[in-house]
Write a structure and sequence with these properties.
The complex is a heterodimer of chains A (241) and B (82). Chain A has one domain. Chain A contains six helices and two strands. In chain A, strands 1-2 form a two-stranded antiparallel sheet. Chain A starts with 19 loop residues before the first strand and ends with a helix. The relative contact order of chain A is 0.15. Chain B is mainly α and 82 residues long. Chain B is 85% helix and 0% strand. Chain B is built from two helices and no strands. In chain B, α1 runs antiparallel to α2. The longest helix of chain B has 39 residues. Chain B is rod-shaped and about 60 Å long. The chains are: A mainly alpha (241), B mainly alpha (82). Chain B: It is a multi-pass membrane protein. Chain B: This is ATP synthase subunit c. Chain B: GO terms for molecular function: lipid binding; proton-transporting ATP synthase activity, rotational mechanism.
């Protein structure tokens, strides 16, 4: 694998090289686990600190958390609908915050100062395994949402306007996780690659605007992933008449 | 990995991104046109239009990104590299 070991003097760009951990019969990508644990830890710490001493007039971290809560609630409510959005708000919020903090953490934290035996630390979402796992979770949850809300009537959705739609709707169930995972993975990896290549060509000043563009795209991608997840769930629980 | 596979992979990777950029390029152009017309007609709706425009841009962009993923697979994780 990886017949182009791109090793540049300034930006060590290593695509397809990982720090492998052996877990039973599984070979897992250690660097992804380390960064995602750091992201999860940071999020947990933020939430614990923010809710420790809650006040009537929110200040500081509590204020930030309440803003996030409002934001996620609005997102979930517009996509899923007034009736069941409460059940799915934690899931949508977790997806959004995890992806957002992963993307920004990969771009903002100078991971390259920490040397690993092979591979490099970076955004966990720049690994296809992470994004596929998240996308499959979304698939499972919209099936669960549909079945638990409507029972077997959920499958009416497949033949909803006409039975001609049946094959397309079945194919859609496979393309949804595929496009969700590829979109996130491709965007984040592309950001990292563009920055690394630019740093290689012009090490000074020029990469900075591209880095800002990357931050912007990463934030939008987190929003898109959460919005689409909410939309799919909303589509599954929607009542047809 | 023989040289003919390498050459074919590199050419295919270039084509995957290049051809994949055509459609979304046209699409983003016409979406931006619509947004600019909308803002010119109704400047107070600029915030809403901008939000929707950026979201739809990201959707169109992801089509090119699919091409990029194929290109990256060909370059870094080529399944035909013997």
């Amino acid at each position: 694998m990886g017949f182009f070991p791109f090793v540049f003097p300034f930006a060590e760009l290593e695509v397809g090289q990982h720090l492998y951990w052996q877990l039973g019969n599984l070979r897992i990508h250690g660097q992804v686990f380390m960064t995602s644990w750091i992201v999860i830890g940071a999020l947990l710490a933020l939430v614990v600190i923010g809710t420790k001493k809650m006040e009537r007039d929110p200040r500081g971290v509590q204020n930030l958390l309440e803003f996030l809560w409002d934001y996620i609630r609005d997102l979930a409510r517009t996509q899923i609908g007034e009736k069941v959005y409460r059940d799915w708000m934690p899931f949508i919020g977790t997806l959004f915050l995890f992806i957002f903090v992963s993307n920004w953490g990969g771009a903002l934290v100078p991971w390259r100062l920490i040397h690993l035996p092979s591979g490099e630390l970076g955004a966990p979402t720049a690994d296809i395994n992470t994004t596929v796992a998240l996308a499959l979770l979304v698939s499972l949850s919209y099936f669960y949402a549909g079945l638990s809300n409507k029972g077997l009537r959920y499958f009416e959705y497949y033949v909803h306007p006409t039975p001609i739609m049946l094959p397309f709707k079945i194919v859609e169930d496979f393309t949804k996780p595929l496009s969700l995972s590829f979109r996130l993975f491709g965007n984040i990896l592309a950001d990292e690659l563009v920055v690394a290549v630019l740093v290689f060509l012009v090490p000074l000043v020029l990469p900075v605007p591209v880095m800002f563009l990357g931050l912007f795209t990463s934030a939008i991608q987190a929003l898109i992933f959460a919005t689409l997840a909410a939309y799919y769930i909303g589509e599954a629980v929607e009542e047809h008449h | 990995m023989d040289s003919i596979t390498t050459a074919a992979s590199v050419v295919a990777a270039g084509l995957a991104v290049g051809l994949g950029a055509i459609g979304p390029g046209i699409g983003q152009g016409s979406a931006a046109q619509g947004a600019v017309e909308g803002i010119a007609r109704q400047p107070e709706a600029e915030g809403k239009i901008r939000g929707t425009l950026l979201l739809s841009f990201a959707f169109m962009e992801s089509l090119t990104i699919y091409g990029l993923v194929v290109a990256l697979v060909l370059l870094f994780a080529n399944p035909f590299a013997g």
